[in-house]
Amino acid sequence: MGISICIFDAYGTLFDVAAAARIAANEPGRGAFAAKWPEIAANWRAKQLQYTWLRAASDTHCDFWRVTQDGLDYALEAADMAHPELRDRLLALYWELSAFPEVPAMLAALKSARLKTGILSNGSPRMLSGAVESAGIGDMLDAVLSVEQLGVFKPHPSVYRMVDGHFGVQPKQVLFVSSNGWDASYAAHHGFQTVWVNRSNEPMDRLPSTPQHIMHDLTDIPKLAATL
Asked: Which of 71, 94, 104, 226 has its CA 20 to 30 A from that of 21?
């Protein structure tokens, strides 16, 4: 029994989470922000993830839009750039994140191979709908699954079980792809075949399980799926 479904994390995997800050940095009149945008984008993403873990551990769930705003507020204050207009602009751009360049062709190849595709994300349904629409990939996805159905963020085991229940499959039939090493590791622990898309050449996280495959981008996902 081979792979029949390819499931993707959304933010950082299909969608470029640095795009909002990068676009804003290139807008006229944002010279001060342009000098600091990589640091702000990195802190924004780091705090966004940290707040999901802390809320899951403390049973104080909120939706992903709230932690996205909280992460940005922290990052802007840390850079001494807590300006309301800049905050509003960055949040508006986050609703229009672009997909990584290889995403459309990669998804099209999976669909041509008659594999089902989907997203499993911490993102709220409205956020995911906006990102999918902005990227123009909705017709290449069979499902967009949000943790809001459960009220707990990854890597809680119940999140990965959503895929099994939705598609009616065994974990070994699923190829799960994430740019977050910890996410791919816990998906492997659940029993998925997993790919860590390690775009930044980071070291492997020290966790109970490890992803079976590592790639630098998504280009070869269809080739890998065909061999499993």
From this structure: 104
CATH number at residue 221: 3.40.50.1000
Report the alpha-carbon distance of residue 115 to residue 198 in Å, rounded.
23
Shared domain for 9 and 62, answered yes or no, is: no
- A 10 A CB-CB count for 61 gives 16
The one catalytic residue among 9, 16, 63, 183: 9
Q: What's the one-letter identity of residue 54?
A: L
* pTM attached to this predicted model: 0.95
Residue at token pair 């890998």: 224
Q: Is 9 a catalytic residue?
A: yes
Token digits for 161?
């079980």
* Token reading at 180: 């977050």
